[in-house]
């Protein structure tokens, strides 16, 4: 650290996210020279110990990467391994997988909206704190989250690390009579989801834009969740436009088996999570990207709610590039997922077999699905007896890290331009900006240590009220 | 366990800590939708970073610890947490048995690092993943990967009432019988770890027609001598047996010993 002395501001925790983060800001001449988000997760080595395991195991094992989105891991693993085995799961079994995934979307996105993100807009520290001033709202959130959990519990056996998903389908199928009470609960949840969209639409949002390429799956005709083709929407600057342009821009697609050629991971010294670039550019995956790419396929009720919430009409090319409004888009996705779950249940006809056979064969398979917080890619190679020889997992947060850093840089720059922020103000601003993207940096304790390097002066401040007991 | 301070005077303070883990066990607390606000009325949720950005200072009356110890830094941090906690309860397979990341205990960690990272030298990690009890005294261990919501509430209620949690240590087979399930091993020849696995899940897998894979870890009495021939009869070879024991509770002493014995034979 050359001639500067580092100023270590322990803001305590990067709270209300999964994982441990540290942030490094380097300020020179009133400008932000660098913003680096470091993720310090103790490595858990999933890719290493999947080698030598049976091809039937990744759905159960990789679920344990993340307790917040285990279904996403199970579904990406199933797709990749079935791809290697040349099996496509279709019909009612595919519909039930989508239903299971809808459950996780409802549960996880609602968790983020009410328990992690809304407190930022309403001046509370937590949802229980929020419950003192907004009791009915928090109760609605918990009820909605419960409806998502109810889907995952019925189809998956339990809400966290479901046991019923397997290669080729399920171990056991639900009966129509089991689905009936679920449908009743979901009809109430649809009202709660619509009310949620109205609630968050009224929050105060700072003006902001984001200038990243957007990456999401696309499946024309439906809002892509558990399958689709990787699709890229270019960044505004790529089209010579300002960052906050809320219009759809040109897209291109590539096959999921070319994912490794396009999304290239590099390791950086400051983080245990790998950084990735999409065709050499910074990119963002997750709610905003999905909405930009699939928004036109929303169901009528979700489409109407999006317009009522001020997001414009995605069928006419409206997108949202304000990361602070991601909470609104997330609420629309929850409403869509509830509506979609009801549609699937209505159309459900029991099939004779709970799964199709997936015989092993030598080869490599690729799979990507839309985890609530972004595209999750798996690749497996195996021998003809089904023994895995190589595994690769690219989670959404690792992909988003560069985009989050860029957002931070812009926001801090803007804040510096409008006065002299204290380090505590900067820290809070940065925490909020990070939470916009619902990063899931699981696998560690949660701390955001903010290091600010300011030219010519240094100090070490510890924000007592937010002390992190470490 | 007892809730020692008089909580008419003040609500006991709850803290939730995380080590190497997936967050699933602490998320179980947030999944108690019907009870969450009630818990918050009876206990001060003082330190819970997944849920609150205003951590309160210790000491804490009840600390729930998720995750295993995999870095030198964490080995030091758990000492501090023990010092500021009256009661310390581990939640989940990671905290009670090293978790799935304890698979490194059988491997060369340098090799593992090289598989995942281009620059292994940037990464700080211990060669092992160890349970919390390997580092500090633990007052109660709650099993499961993930833990069961009902059992978690029982632990909290028992703490508030000053009694020991009522969490039986018998096997999954008991729960299957109580649920009236047909035994998947007897009826279908499906390999099932139920006879050696700790209860708590309500015999979930057999209820869904699959064999138990042991996510709650070993039950209080395991007879591997009688059990492993059963797995073989149902079609598992040595490597299958070793793999199923070496998954989410691989560092639990009973599973560890049985898998090592298998490999020696
Ligand atoms: S025990 Fe399982 S559910 Fe709990 S933290 Fe560990 S991996 Fe996650
Ligand atoms: S039956 Fe076994 S593997 Fe399945 S949930 Fe219960 S303890 Fe876990």
TrEMBL record, chain A:
This is Coenzyme F420-reducing hydrogenase alpha subunit. Fe cation binds at residues 69, 443. It comes from Saccharopolyspora phatthalungensis. Belongs to the [NiFe]/[NiFeSe] hydrogenase large subunit family. Keywords: Iron, Magnesium, Metal-binding, Nickel, Oxidoreductase. InterPro entries: Ni-dep_hyd_lsu (IPR001501), NiFe-Hase_large (IPR029014). PANTHER family: COENZYME F420 HYDROGENASE, SUBUNIT ALPHA, F420-NON-REDUCING HYDROGENASE VHU SUBUNIT A. Ni(2+) binds at residues 66, 69, 440. Mg(2+) binds at residues 47, 393, 446. Pfam families: NiFeSe_Hases. Its cofactor is Ni(2+); Fe cation. Coiled coil: none annotated. One of its GO terms (molecular function) is oxidoreductase activity.
UniProtKB/TrEMBL annotation, chain B:
Gene3D superfamilies: NADH:ubiquinone oxidoreductase-like, 20kDa subunit. Residues 22-158 form the NADH:ubiquinone oxidoreductase-like 20kDa subunit domain. Pfam families: Oxidored_q6. GO terms for molecular function: iron-sulfur cluster binding; oxidoreductase activity. Keywords: Oxidoreductase. The keyword Cell membrane does not apply. The keyword Oxidoreductase applies. This is Coenzyme F420-reducing hydrogenase gamma subunit. It comes from Saccharopolyspora phatthalungensis. The lineage of its organism: Bacteria, Bacillati, Actinomycetota, Actinomycetes, Pseudonocardiales.
